[in-house]
Each structure stands twice: as C-alpha cells, then as structure tokens.
Design brief:
- With 229 residues, this protein is mostly helical.
- The protein folds into two domains: 76 residues, Cytochrome Bc1 Complex, Chain D, domain 2 (Orthogonal Bundle), CATH 1.10.760.10; 107 residues, Orthogonal Bundle (Cytochrome Bc1 Complex, Chain D, domain 2), CATH 1.10.760.10.
- It contains nine helices and two strands; from the N terminus they run αααααββαααα.
- It has a two-stranded antiparallel sheet.
- Helix 2 crosses helix 5, helix 4 crosses helix 5 and helix 8 crosses helix 9.
- It starts with a helix and ends in a 15-residue tail after the last helix.
- 26% of the residues are buried.
Length: 229
C-alpha cells in the first residue's frame, strides 16, 4: 500500500510539471523581448507572474487568456492555438526562483574630455585596446545605423522625426526605460515597437552605444572596434 501511495504521488508530480513545449514556444515568439525568468524587462518576470497566480485553480486559463488578448503594452497573440497558449501558461506558472539573483553591478570608470570621470555599469572599451569599443558596443552601433538613424539622426545626433537620444539617456531615461520604450514603441509619435524583431540584448547594445555618444566618449562615424586588426 505504501509503495502504491509513493507511485501515485510520483505520477501526480510528473503530471504537474509541464513539458518543454511551452519554453520552445516562448523562444520562438516575441515573449523574450519583454520578459525574463527572474527579472523584469519591459513586462514582469515569469516568476513574478507565477507568484501572482499561485494557488488559483484557474491560473492556466487566466494566463492563457492574457496571452491571447494582450494587456496594456503587451500585444495579443491570436495566431497561437488554445493548446499552445495553454502550454506557455503552464510553463510560466511552473517557474520558481533559483535564488541566483545578481548582486550590484560592477562599476567601470571612464575619463571624460573635461577631466572628470563617470562610472557606468558596463565598459565601453576593450581591455588593452585603448579607444577601441567592445564587441557589444560596436554591435549597438551597427544596429543603430541600420534601424534607428532614420528617425533619430546619424551618430545619434537627433533628427527631424525623433529626438536626440543622447539627451534622452543623459536625462531621466536609464537603461530599463530605454528598453521599455524601444520594445513597446510610441504609437502616438509614430515610433514602432521593436519587440519580436530586436532582442533585449540588441537594445541594450544600442543603449550602450548611445550612452557612449552622449558622453562624447565614442566619436562620430564608425567607432574603432576590438574586432579590427
């Protein structure tokens, strides 16, 4: 009898744990542009969603309905089938904190042209290669000059259609706010949402490039890169 109870308990546990179909569907969609497992990006972390719906018997149906209909800046996903939305919802609701939250970010000092220094939580330049930007910063330059310059101006200097992003990141717009605006867009101002096209890492790289330009640490034009020979 005891063995039967253990077997039944094991079967219940296997039933409760979702397959990886939901995770695969998330990776193939635009979800990761706005969500991460343990930290907020544009939308809440998956573990925060799981905690919000914990103990609710109809949690899967509620989350699946949110995925279908969208809410706020989150777009609707009518192209997904009911079973696909359910698989995604089950995977999200199964997420738990791993306890691996990162501590305070390392600070990097950058000398400005006026003799002062500024501390950033990322480095603009490659170690041992003075004046050459890191690979991710150069990647941000490439993406900016592929998609952003048409409205925000060449070299992030501002344009007729959109503001000077150097001033934006020098003011109240930090990296988190920059990601949120880039991913969700501003429909009333004609700015498209880049979620689903650019990844979070892509937008972070663009932010780093623009931040370097705002501090006049990265020169106009193509910046020298650590990848250059």
């Amino acid at each position: 009898m005891k063995t039967l109870v253990i077997l039944l308990a094991g079967c219940a546990l296997l039933k409760a744990q979702p397959t990886n179909d939901g995770e695969k569907l998330i990776q193939a969609s635009d979800c990761s542009s706005c969500h991460a497992v343990e930290r907020q990006v544009v939308g809440p972390a998956y573990i925060a969603i799981a905690q919000r719906y914990a103990g609710q018997g109809d949690a899967v149906d509620k989350v699946a309905a949110r995925i279908r209909d969208g809410i706020g800046a989150m777009p609707a996903h009518p192209a997904l089938s009911d079973s696909q939305r359910k698989s995604i919802a089950e995977w999200i609701l199964f997420q738990k904190s791993t306890g691996n939250a990162q501590g305070p970010a390392k600070q990097y000092s950058h000398a400005l042209k006026d003799g002062t220094t500024v501390n950033l939580d990322f480095s603009l330049f490659a170690d041992g290669k003075p004046g050459k930007v890191k690979r991710d910063v150069f990647h941000g330059y490439q993406f900016y000059n592929s998609y952003c310059y048409r409205c925000h101006g060449t070299d992030a200097t501002g344009g007729q259609l959109a503001p000077d992003l150097r001033r934006s990141v020098s003011g109240s717009m930090d990296q988190k706010a920059f990601i949120a605006v880039a991913m969700t867009g501003k429909a009333d101002k004609g700015m498209p949402a880049w979620a689903g096209f650019l990844t979070e890492d892509d937008v972070i790289d663009i932010y780093k490039y623009v931040k370097g330009r705002s501090l006049d640490l990265i020169p106009p034009g193509r910046p020298p890169s650590e990848q250059d020979q």
